[in-house]
């Protein structure tokens, strides 16, 4: 089992949370079992036993019988039997005497749901051990089947398929300098140990291992990619009206995919100058806060249902919004109502690895950060559109950026003639761009202070220039309108 990364850290200063807790050596054993159950049903975790009031008390104050009871927690107080790894950190207790803190660690589970002897199911949410409701328990049981997918072995994948640069980075991350790579991958859930009928042991990469480390994950898991698509306008069109202006397919190990996605999106986003009322200086303001859109992409990679092999993650850019599409519905106990405060990893091994790679900066707090970053930029709250097969995150920009992006697109569309047009003509083109067409009265109402004849003259001039096409059933038709010529 995986040796806890907490073993070499200052256990008194680590914040308690999704995967770590501190307890006194004399803590109630039933409650201790419930914490370990909660960890196992979520992302795995470690209890540091022998710490009271953030001081080392050690475990030597316990009798031999009590110590043995602790070691039997997984078999005596958990159903089904839960494997608990015990590691020891040697310390000086608060009396100045040599002592031990026990690090009790459990792995995340896939196809099992653990409970105590009272048939109660617990789940770790933030730093709390949550007693699940009947409905939450049903959702957990359903999601375990999806979660099991990342732990499945892929027989066709071999070590030669791995991306050497990413593997070196992964080794360095964990300080691994051994010769047998399986010794690193197996404890991290990226490989499976298999015993054949002749009692011989061999290893196979898991889905998580392939996604994180393979050069070409899509060779084994179709759909394990990110697609970036930028559209002209506010909607996706097809056929002869197709309005895709850029499309990029991003593939490779997850760490590299995330970096490439970040670079691509950053290159496509606009900034504008805004007066900072506090400093009195003009500052560059991005179209969307990076923390929000990057968290959205990271969350999609971490929590998507990789068993949905016919679908991929899509980042769609429109004039007025970004959409991040993730295959698979919200995991287990997460709903659109509690998404800011409730976290459950559908792919805990991937989640842990990407946390250590540095993409998940504060484990389990990404969605709340999206809300906060959008609010700090005075943008609308993110919108989560959820159905049985997907989650769609929508981030809207503001009216200033929409205007900038629209004007950029129009200038590109019209060409050098754009600079020669007046305000009324710019407005007419903008209205036709926004709504598909423009009528004389609509333009008149949009140019407050100008006359109807000014609107009519502008539309006639744009038609003569070949920018507009006049559509009418008769020369004096009251229903005539103008539209942009492609």
From TrEMBL:
Sorted UniProt keywords: ATP-binding, Helicase, Hydrolase, Nucleotide-binding
InterPro entries referenced in this protein's UniProt entry, alphabetically: RecG_C_sf (IPR038475), Schlafen_AlbA_2_dom (IPR007421), Schlafen_AlbA_2_dom_sf (IPR038461)
Gene3D superfamilies, sorted: 3.30.565.60, Schlafen, AAA domain (3.30.950.30)
GO molecular function annotations of the record: helicase activity
Schlafen AlbA-2 domain: residues covered: 16-131
PANTHER family with a match to the protein in the record: GLPR-RELATED TRANSCRIPTIONAL REPRESSOR, SCHLAFEN ALBA-2 DOMAIN-CONTAINING PROTEIN
Protein name: Atp-dependent dna helicase recg
């Amino acid at each position: 089992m995986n040796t806890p990364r907490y073993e070499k850290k200052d256990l008194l200063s680590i914040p308690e949370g999704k995967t770590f807790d501190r307890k006194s050596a004399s803590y109630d054993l039933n409650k201790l079992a419930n914490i370990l159950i909660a960890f196992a049903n979520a992302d795995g975790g470690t209890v540091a036993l022998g710490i009271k009031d953030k001081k080392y008390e050690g475990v030597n104050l316990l009798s031999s019988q009590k110590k043995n009871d602790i070691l039997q927690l997984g078999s005596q107080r958990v159903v089904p039997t839960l494997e608990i790894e015990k590691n020891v950190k040697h310390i000086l207790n608060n009396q100045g005497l040599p002592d031990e803190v026990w690090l009790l660690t459990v792995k995340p589970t896939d196809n099992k749901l653990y409970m105590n002897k009272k048939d109660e199911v617990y789940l770790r949410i933030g730093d709390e051990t949550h007693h699940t409701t009947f409905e939450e328990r049903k959702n957990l049981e359903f999601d375990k089947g999806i979660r099991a997918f990342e732990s499945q072995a892929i027989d066709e994948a071999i070590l030669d398929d791995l991306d050497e640069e990413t593997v070196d980075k992964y080794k360095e991350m964990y300080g691994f300098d051994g010769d047998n790579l399986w010794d690193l991958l197996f404890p991290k859930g990226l490989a499976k140990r298999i015993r054949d009928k002749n009692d011989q042991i061999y290893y196979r990469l898991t889905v998580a291992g392939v996604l994180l480390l393979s050069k070409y994950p899509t060779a084994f898991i179709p759909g394990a990619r990110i697609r970036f698509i930028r559209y002209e306008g506010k909607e996706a069109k097809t056929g002869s009206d197709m309005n895709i202006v850029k499309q990029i397919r991003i593939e490779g190990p997850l760490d590299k995919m995330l970096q490439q996605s970040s670079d691509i999106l950053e290159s496509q986003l606009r900034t504008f100058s805004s007066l900072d009322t506090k400093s009195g200086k003009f500052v560059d303001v991005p179209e969307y806060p990076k923390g929000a859109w990057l968290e959205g992409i990271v969350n999609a990679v971490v929590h998507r249902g990789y068993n949905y092999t016919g679908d991929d993650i899509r980042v769609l850019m429109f004039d007025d919004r970004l959409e991040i599409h993730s295959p698979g519905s919200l995991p287990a106990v997460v709903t659109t109502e509690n998404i800011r405060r409730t976290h459950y990893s559908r792919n805990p091994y991937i989640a842990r690895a990407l946390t250590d790679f540095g993409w998940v900066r504060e484990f389990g707090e990404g969605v709340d950060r999206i809300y906060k970053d959008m609010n700090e930029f005075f943008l609308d709250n993110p919108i989560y559109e959820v159905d049985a097969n997907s989650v769609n995150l929508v981030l809207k920009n503001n009216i200033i950026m929409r205007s900038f992006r629209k004007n950029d697109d129009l200038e590109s569309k019209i060409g050098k003639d754009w600079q020669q047009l007046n305000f009324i003509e710019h407005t007419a083109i903008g209205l036709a761009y926004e709504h598909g067409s423009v009528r004389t009265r609509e333009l008149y109402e949009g140019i407050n202070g100008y006359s109807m004849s000014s609107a009519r003259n502008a539309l006639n001039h744009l038609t003569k220039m070949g920018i507009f096409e006049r559509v009418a059933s008769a020369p004096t038709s009251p229903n005539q309108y103008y539209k942009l010529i492609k």
